[in-house]
Specification:
binds magnesium ion, disordered C terminus, binds adenosine-5'-triphosphate, Rossmann fold, alpha/beta, four-stranded antiparallel sheet, 22% strand, 9 helices, 10 strands
Length: 271
């Protein structure tokens, strides 16, 4: 085991980023240890996607540092950056599958870009990855021929093509019905169990947060930073911040239906 094993998989220090003059996140710091499933949550516009864009190198931070396995990503030169980028997979919110390519071609892309494997070796890995996500034998299908859930699985297969120790998943169950969304959750858990993959997941899906997250980071638009960091069940039960409690207990905002003729009527129950 190398020293790197003890280092956090991701370490963000005093990260400030935004667009032009607009600061979205200010002096944000956190670390993700190996094997953790970390959810980044928060209201619309709080900066979740912006954080993800910085983490995967699509947006340059105004200042601060992002390191992977102890190696600075922000200070890396082009070659080091390329190497770091090959160490993680990304499932984009819109899947980002190429519509003119088959699933096999889509999944082989990162292998072509980052490895010297032969065509036959790539085909073997594609078949394996499709099997891992429950799409065995779908090599020749095009994304448009797949349901929404299958497209997410295919995008996950591509994110896992290089056997990364870390994956970023942006809204992996967005647009899926509750049953398919649950299946996606199970698949994500299976990947973590089988490969020990560290995961950073942006999601609004409360059921997934409670089912999958070891830890959540909640971002806030006003504060431009982290307003909660902990286990979802503990935060939901004990946070004194109403923004955190309301987000993690969304049912509390709904008027309760009377249970019977003697019930008190649609009275709001506040924990
Ligand atoms: N490309 C961009 N150019 C300028 N401003 C942007 C850009 N993308 C996002 N913003 C602004 O940055 C802020 C954070 O946006 P971001 O997309 O990171 O939020 P989010 O938490 O992902 O929201 P959602 O849950 O709606 O996806 C918002 O005020 C948004 O208007
Ligand atoms: Mg977003």
């Amino acid at each position: 085991m190398t020293n790197d094993a003890a280092k956090p998989v991701v370490e963000v220090k005093n990260l400030t980023c935004g667009y032009g003059e607009e600061v979205v996140l200010k002096e944000v710091s956190f670390a993700v240890p190996a094997r953790e499933v970390l959810f980044v949550i928060g209201g619309s516009g709080c900066g979740k996607s912006t954080l993800l864009r910085c983490l995967i190198g699509l947006l340059k931070p105004a200042h601060g540092d992002i390191a992977y396995f102890g190696r600075s990503f922000t200070a890396a030169d082009t070659e080091q950056r390329r190497e770091i980028l090959s160490g993680f997979g990304v499932l984009y919110q819109n899947n980002a599958l190429w519509s003119s390519m088959t699933l096999a071609e889509n999944i082989a892309l990162p292998l072509e870009e980052h490895t010297a494997l032969s065509r036959a070796e790539r085909a073997e890995i594609v078949a394996l990855k499709l099997t891992e996500v429950g799409l065995a034998g779908s090599e020749d299908r095009y994304p448009a021929e797949l349901s929404g859930g299958m497209q997410k699985r295919a995008a996950l297969a591509r994110a896992l093509a290089l056997d990364p120790a870390l994956v970023f998943l942006d809204e992996p169950s967005e647009g899926l019905d509750p049953i398919i969304s649950r299946e996606m959750d199970e698949l994500i858990l299976q990947v973590r169990e089988n490969f020990g993959t560290t995961m950073v997941i942006v999601s609004h899906q409360i059921s997934s947060i409670f089912h999958l997250a070891d830890r959540v980071l909640m971002l806030d638009h006003e504060t431009k930073g982290i307003i909660a960091d902990g286990k979802p069940a503990e935060l939901a039960a004990t946070s004194t911040d109403p923004r955190v409690r309301d987000f993690l207990n969304p049912g509390n905002d709904l008027p309760k239906r009377p249970a019977g003729p003697t019930a008190g009527g649609g009275k709001r129950v506040t924990p």
